[in-house]
Amino acid sequence: MSVGQVKPGVLTSPKPVQSVNAAQSANAMPAGFWGAVGEENVTTASFATSGEAASQTHALRGRTLNVSDASDLRLRRKEVILTFDDGPAPRATSLILAALEKFGVKATFFMVGKMANAHPKTARAVAQAGHTIASHTHGHENLTGLGTVEARRTVAIGESEIARAIAPTGKKVAPFFRFPYLAQTRALRADLKDLGLVIFDVDIDSLDFKNDTPEIVLKRTLVRLEQEGRGIILLHDIHMRTARLLPELLRELEQRGYKVVHAVANHRALFDTPLQASLR
Ligand SMILES: [Zn+2]
């Protein structure tokens, strides 16, 4: 793939993301580990820091969906939830945040613990912008290759690493989880649900990890979307092609009358005990 082939309209100029200038507390475990109290309150409070004018109207912005169980993830026609997995990655994630802010929409970021450790400043920028922070294991392990104890362990460690990275912002990690590679078993799924996690599936897979041009990924995503008419869209904020196509994808969604729904955690997770216990 050559970046030079991208039509100008797809490219977006880099925009620095406001960094959170809070003291690093890398060693402190956040008090509210898994204890997210209604993320919606946090989200509202963060609007002021996103540089977004309160009076500005964004046609693409949809409702806020309170989610305490996977069954709450019911979308109406022409509603989508944007999800970004595997980050944070400084360059791509920053461009993605800029595009989301421009269109006034909120997404869910399924972060990898290792990545949050490596790029805490970027993780904090995502949290500070009011997006939902969710988890995706410590090191993107295929959980079907692990025993239950080890699977729980990487999920718990990943969550705690992300929580630690964003702790200076005062934001919490939502008890939302996505399986790496979408690889799962019925037993694993039931186990994580028992621990209070809401498993996010995928309705529209952009396949943006493939070595295609941004245009091809964009076209494929829109075709899939039109087939479904609604759904959870899977993207990855570690790929520059994704950062490059996102402004165009958002423009298309807006023109086609879609709304981007913001999924937020609706409950205090049952999690504190069993998941934390699995770390010991
Ligand atoms: Zn992943």
Condensed summary:
The protein has 280 residues and is α/β, with parallel strands linked by helices. Helix content is 37%, strand content 15%. Helix 5 packs across helix 9.
CA distance, first residue to last residue:
46 Å
CATH superfamily: Glycoside hydrolase/deacetylase
Please give the domain count.
Answer: 1
Output the radius of gyration: 18 Å
Structure description:
The protein has 280 residues and is α/β, with parallel strands linked by helices. The protein has a single domain (34-50, 78-279), classed as Glycoside hydrolase/deacetylase (TIM Barrel, Alpha-Beta Barrel), CATH 3.20.20.370. The protein has nine helices and nine strands. α2 (90-103) runs parallel beside α4 (120-128), α2 runs parallel beside α8 and α7 (214-228) packs across α8. Residues 1-55 have low confidence and may be disordered. It binds zinc ion (ZN). The site of zinc ion has 5 residues, from loops.
Which structural traits does this protein have?
280 residues, alpha/beta, TIM Barrel, seven-stranded parallel beta sheet, two-stranded parallel ribbon, 9 helices, 9 strands, 37% helix, 15% strand, binds zinc ion
SSE topology:
Blueprint: H1 39-46, E1 61-67, E2 79-85, H2 90-103, E3 108-111, H3 113-118, H4 120-128, E4 132-135, H5 148-166, E5 176-177, H6 186-194, E6 198-199, E7 204-205, H7 214-228, E8 231-236, H8 240-255, E9 259-265, H9 272-279
Parallel strand pairs: 1-9, 2-3, 2-8, 2-9, 3-4, 5-6, 7-8
The protein binds zinc ion (ZN).
Zinc ion binds at residues 85-86, 136, 140, 180.
